Amino acid sequence: MIWQQSPTYLAVLTTMLSAALVTDFTAPQLLAQSYPHHEVGAHFPPPPDRGSPSRTIGAGTWMIKFPPVPERGEPRRTAGGGSRSYSCTDNGDIPLTAIVPANNLVTTVAANPTLFWYVPKTTASEAEFVLIDDQNQEVYLTTLTLDNTNGIVQLSVPETVPLTMGKQYKWFFVLVCDPQERSRDHWVQGILERTELSPELALNLEQEPNTLEQAKLYADALIWQETLSTIAQLRDSQPQAWVDLIKSVGLEAIANKPFLNCCTASN
Predict the structure, then answer these.
(1) 3-state secondary structure of 141
(2) Closest CA relative to residue 106, chosen from 239, 249, 225, 265
(3) Residues 252, 163: Cα–Cα separation, whole Å
């Protein structure tokens, strides 16, 4: 055929084939040089930790948070007291802990609020709750029966002991480790203060049918007890709200602990 005898055509064909081969073999090499992590067996390094929120409910958002509160120098929220050489609780468990903000101040608009504590496994068969007014007078004392089950305990101030508006009370929650030697008690303490519900907040609460949103209104007003007790009512239907609230005051360790029905007040 004529094209086989044409040196010009052979030269053109050779040039075209050479160009194609160069293109076919150099392109992957150039890609590999530009994107080395696309090579076989290579892995992308982990991204830097920028402190971004975790991928949880709401893409890292909180269902509810209690705002930071100023420190007051009040007693710590975890157990104190008792003999160092004697313990009636499981040393591997979380200590007796009051479920309160970091400043240990429980604000409430209720005359008879409910307080919450985490109680570890304990050999103590009973606990005491004591309420003392600003004149250092005991206004309420009750005993609770325990059953050595760890979890969250709640107790309401009875209607016979209504809190006075604007007055601060000191409370103690005590594990009676040895009834014959009360120096072995383990206890936590804090401050309880009844505050007035502002007209604006009262109106907003009245107009808000959603329970979670009501809790957020209380939180924004720094009213802890109603925030906590409202979210406690939602614990079965919206458990993440409880977890978020407890974590927001630095009590992550007890955020998923169960509620106990073991403990009823004697009076």
Answers:
(1) strand
(2) 225
(3) 30
pLDDT digits (tens, 9 = 90+) for 119-176: 999 999 999 999 999 999 999 999 999 988 899 999 999 999 999 999 999 999 999 9
154 within 8 A of 116, measured Cβ to Cβ = yes
* Cα distance between residue 157 and residue 155, in whole Å: 7
Residue range 32-56, pLDDT digits in tens? 333 232 322 323 233 333 333 333 3
- How far is the C-alpha of 35 from the C-alpha of 252, rounded, in Å? 42
pLDDT surpassing 80 at residue 182 = yes
Helices 239-248 + 224-233 axis angle, to 10: 150
**At 30, which helix (H) or strand (E)?**
helix 7-34
Higher pLDDT, 8 or 140: 140
Instruction: DSSP letter for 55, please.
Output: S
* Residue 193 near residue 108, CB atoms below 8 Å: yes
Q: Virtual CA dihedral for 121, 123, 125, 129, nearest 10 degrees? A: -60
